[in-house]
């Protein structure tokens, strides 16, 4: 049968005491350290996942804002082009209107100057005709002098046909 020896009992007691001592001073602290490390790693992974989620959200917000900014800048450029075209058209229309006014003013001035020149010429012709008639009346009776009076008149008035004295 089985014989229990006192040494065997002491060895078993030593093993149980050793196990309890190791469990108290070695296994528990090691297990606590391992649990703490496991918790720390789990927190690190959770924080990394949270950070990654936040980064993706920020990236999506940034891309949305960037797209909005692109659309806004496109609208601003289009609006600026439309305003520039409207300003260009207004300036061209104003310039055309001003040019028409200047042309009409120049025509009016030219017409007035032509009319004034015609009046001056009529006045001079009338004055010359009166002078010629006066001379003709004073010298009436002298046929040769009539030709000289006529030549003198043409000399002073200017011959419109380009005749010169013969």
Helices and strands, in order, run as HH
The rounded distance between the terminal residues' Cα atoms is: 185 Å
Overall tally of domains: 1
Number of helices: 2
Largest sheet, in brief, is: none
- Global outline: rod-shaped
Low-confidence stretches: none
Estimate the helix proportion, in percent.
over 70%
Cα-atom radius of gyration:
63 Å
Strand content: under 5%
Overall mean pLDDT stands at 85
- Give me the count of strands: 0
Q: What class, by secondary structure content?
A: mainly alpha
List its salient traits.
mainly alpha, transmembrane, 166 residues, transport, cell membrane, ATP_synth_b/b'su_bac/chlpt
What does this structure look like?
The protein is mainly α and 166 residues long. The longest helix is centred in the middle third of the chain and has 133 residues. The chain has one domain. Helices cover 89% and strands 0% of the residues. The protein is rod-shaped. It contains two helices and no strands. Belongs to the ATPase B chain family. It is a single-pass membrane protein. It comes from Mordavella massiliensis. It holds the Pfam family ATP-synt_B.
How is the secondary structure organized here?
Blueprint: H1 6-138, H2 143-157
Helix pairs in contact: 1-2
Short description:
The chain is an all-alpha fold. It has helices at about 5-140, 145-155. About 90% of the residues lie in helices and about 0% in strands.
């Amino acid at each position: 049968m089985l014989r229990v020896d006192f040494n065997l009992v002491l060895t078993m007691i030593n093993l149980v005491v050793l196990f309890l001592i190791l469990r108290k001073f070695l296994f528990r602290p090691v297990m606590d350290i391992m649990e703490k490390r496991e918790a720390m790693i789990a927190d690190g992974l959770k924080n990394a996942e949270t950070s990654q989620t936040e980064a993706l959200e920020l990236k999506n917000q940034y891309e949305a804002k960037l797209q909005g900014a692109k659309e806004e800048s496109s609208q601003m450029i289009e609006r600026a082009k439309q305003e520039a075209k409207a300003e260009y058209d207004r300036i061209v229309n104003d310039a055309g209107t001003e040019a028409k006014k200047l042309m009409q003013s120049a025509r009016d001035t030219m017409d007035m100057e032509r009319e004034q020149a015609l009046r001056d010429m009529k006045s001079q012709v009338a004055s010359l005709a009166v002078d010629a008639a006066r001379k003709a009346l004073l010298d009436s009776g002298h046929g040769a002098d009539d030709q000289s009076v006529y030549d003198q008149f043409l000399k002073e008035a200017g011959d419109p046909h380009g005749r010169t004295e013969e």
